């Protein structure tokens, strides 16, 4: 297997794996499993599926992400970022369509890894990631309002925010004090533990406290048992999803959206882990692992799998040393499900909604937003457009439009940095026009800068005998830049002006030769001194 696609678990095995590392990984895996247990069920319910599917995703998908992944500390499982997409897919195509879309996204992710596309997916601009993460957080929170307040809607809850808010407002008279109290207790418990005992498993303690309060006080609140009949105490038998061609074509857009978001989310999580540990992940290996994990998750009835930033950060802080911690996290989750499945029936849905309310608040990167607003107006616009499109239109549309705006901004900045400076030399004593004019180009000479550069270079007339194009300052040139440069050379040649191109880059020479700019049309010189000596020699010879 090529080193670039080698799983980090294999690298750890080659290094030598000791008992002390196993102990550290086991403790970290247990810590993450305690965090993932309520979160996986909450994400599944918010996604429009049963809570057991969230556990299947964390167990099966999480195991394969760690076993085959390119990060030592990545934790895989269901993610809040997918709630909107999964819920929409379920509403359009049902569970069968969701499972097929998940498996298809796994195939796309694995292919992206094999074809080394992970090196490019990381180029998503920072304002876009901040904007779409904040947008997802708003959508997640809005989807939990009815459960947080125990509202009784007269019909199905609308998906789009602009339709959802009026429906929720019309149902405020049905608010349940018991549900609102349980949700408030959950949120306050999480916040209090985070402040006073940050190393304690706040999510699990909050859910247990809320469940005990609801059971002991006999509060009339919906629970996992009353709504879903509890969760199974074992994994299902793996089965293939519906492989009909018609359904595959119908869910293809959803599969592409799952793969795109999964790649972005997982690689972003791996980058966060790298920053915390000083390690470097293998992007393409990570994509292959995410692909296998999604295929496996779909076979066991799970939903989309991706690397999760919060659980990965928890894993690092808990002292994990290798992917073994992630695999053990999946084993511990399986043990919890086998042993404590009947107890999950008592968990109030309002408590899980409280967990997601805190998660959505944490997803909004407030310091990053403030920094972007203070430092760059253009990037603030990119962030705002991405955020608004994600909230009010579509997640994929928000990412694509945000990326397009960021690309346009980059092109504008690079084009504005191309400098074209001219100077005349060798002015004769009779005051006539200088024999030689020098144009120096500095920066990136690409399609975005062609108009600016040619506006200056096209002023060259027939009043100079020699034109020196100093290209030594060009750091990048594309086909548009080469074509513009060749056009300037031909124009000067038509006026009888001798052209000298100063550059030590052989690729520039080769590209101009492909545009039929030969040594007979323009003379290539390695530096300015050589060009000036050649001009002086020719003048003496004449």
Automatic annotation (TrEMBL):
Keywords: Membrane, Transmembrane, Transmembrane helix. InterPro entries: SLC26A/SulP_dom, SLC26A/SulP_fam, STAS_dom, STAS_dom_sf. Residues 437-535 form the STAS domain. The chain crosses the membrane at residues 26-47, 53-70, 97-117, 124-145, 165-191, 203-225, 245-271, 292-310, 330-359. The keyword Transmembrane helix applies. SUPFAM superfamilies: SpoIIaa-like. Pfam families: STAS, Sulfate_transp. It is found in: Membrane. One of its GO terms (biological process) is transmembrane transport. GO terms for cellular component: membrane. It is a multi-pass membrane protein. This is SulP family inorganic anion transporter. The lineage of its organism: Bacteria, Pseudomonadati, Pseudomonadota, Alphaproteobacteria, Hyphomicrobiales.
